[in-house]
Model the fold of this input.
Amino acid sequence: IANPQATGGMAAVEFWPCMFLYLPNRWVDSLGAYVSLLMFQIFFGLFLMNPVTRGFCTHLTVVMIFCVAGMVHMFIMGAHLNLLTPWRAAVCRICRVGAILGFLGVIVTSNVVLMTSWIGANAPFFFWFCESLGLSSMSMFVICFRYENLSQMPV
Done:
């Protein structure tokens, strides 16, 4: 993301999923889930405000923090999958693994890029793939994490 059009496009595509990321937290009584999601949202916004062309180190720092916050959130939400129907829990587990692997890939790729040009020369789209996998999986998790019967929802 290095220009206003791309930033606006990503913000527009991610707005709905990011807004709905908070819905499971209405049903899950967890301060950790709320704080990790809040950190993700703050640093995701800072990511959109700090393109790589403005300041590489700032961009990289913000990306790594939002990735760690996203992974922490996915780990915390994983503890609440037993509240869902089996098929929803299975889809959420797949999305959760995708998000964690994607965000972990972003962190590893970012650090490797600082040390060598191998990824840029041999796998130029791997960083983008990991970032897309992490954000898409986290967005899909939200769609699948809901109760079939609202009367079963914890109060």
Observations:
- The mean pLDDT is 83.
- The chain has seven helices and no strands.
- The helical segments are 4-20, 23-27, 31-49, 56-78, 86-115, 118-122, 126-144.
